[in-house]
Amino acid sequence: MRQGITQVDSFTDVPYRGNPAAVCVLEVARDERWMQDVAREMNLSETAFLHPEAGGFRLRWFTPAAEVELCGHATLAAAHVLWEEGKLGPGDEARFLTLSGPLGARRDGDWIELDFPTTPASPAPPPPGLLGALGLDSAAAVARSRFDYLVEVPEPALVRSLSPDFLALGRVAARGIIVTSVSDVPGADFISRFFAPAVGVPEDPVTGSAHCSLAPWWSARLGRKRLTGYQASARGGLVRVEVRGDRVALGGRAVTVLRGELVA
C-alpha cells in the first residue's frame, strides 16, 4: 500500500531549523509494528500517524525506539499538514484523540497554537547518576514531572555547554531530562535543552511537550502567564507558552521541507 509522508520543521519558519517530524495522514488505522518500523526508518525524533476518528483525528507518536504519550512538535507538524493539504478548512480547529487525552490546535496568523495539558514538575531529589551524566556538580533545583526530570541551572551558559554522557543518562528512569535557566536570548524568557536517550532521542531539537513543564515552572518564578522559551539546541527554536489553569497553550510556526511516498 502506497502512503504519503511529509516532513515538517516545527517551531520555526526557516527550513532546516526547529525540530523535524514526519507525518503520515492515514485513511484507516495501521498496526503498531508498521508504525514503529516507519518511525525507525525515518530516524527522526518523532513520526506522527493520524487517521479520522470520532469527528477528529486519532494521533499517535513514535520515536525510532518507542511510542510516546505526548509530543508537541509532531502535533504541530500534523496540524500544519492537515491545513496545508486541505483536510481542514483555514478557519477549522484540529481535534486530536491521543494517549494524553484530547488535544487541539488552531491557526493564529502564521502561528499555530496547541492546547495541551500542563505537566507540572515538583521538587524531587536527583536520582543517582543524573547530575554526573549531565556533567554537573550541582543544580539550582531538580524536579520531577509526569514524564521527565527538570534540572534548573543558574546560568544560560551552563545549558549551552552541556555535553552529556548519553549512555549514563539513558539509565535514568524517566522519558527525558529538561535542563533550563533564565534566558540570555533577546525576546525569550527562559532557555532549555532536552535529552531523551532512554527513548532513542539523545537530544531533541525543540520539544513542545517539555514546555508543558517549563511553562508552569517559569510562570511561578517570573510571575507571568505568558512567556517565550528558546530551546538552545544546534537547530534552535522558539515556543510561546501561556498557562491556563491545568492547560497550556503552546505556540509555534512550521514549514514543510519534504513530501514523499512510502511504498512498503
Using brief descriptors, characterize the structure shown.
Diaminopimelate Epimerase, Chain A, domain 1; single chain; alpha+beta; 18 strands; 18-stranded mixed beta sheet; 264 residues
Describe this entry's structure for a reader:
The chain is 19% helix and 42% strand. With 264 residues, the protein is α+β, with helices and mostly antiparallel strands. The protein has two domains: 3-115 and 250-262, Diaminopimelate Epimerase, Chain A, domain 1 (Roll); 122-245, Diaminopimelate Epimerase, Chain A, domain 1 (Roll), CATH 3.10.310.10. The protein has an 18-stranded mixed β-sheet that branches. Strand 13 (190-196) and strand 14 (201-204) form a beta hairpin. The protein starts with a strand and ends with a strand. The model has no long low-confidence stretch (mean pLDDT 97).
Give the name of the CATH architecture of the largest domain: Roll
Write the CATH fold name of the largest domain: Diaminopimelate Epimerase, Chain A, domain 1
Q: Please count the helical segments.
A: 6
Distance between the termini: 6 Å
| Rounded mean pLDDT score | 97
Number of domains: 2
Overall spatial form: globular
CATH class of the largest domain: Alpha Beta
- Kindly provide the radius of gyration, computed on alpha-carbon positions and rounded to a whole number of angstroms: 18 Å
Low-confidence stretches: none
Topology as a string of helices (H) and strands (E): EEHEEEHEEEEHEEHHEEEHEEEE
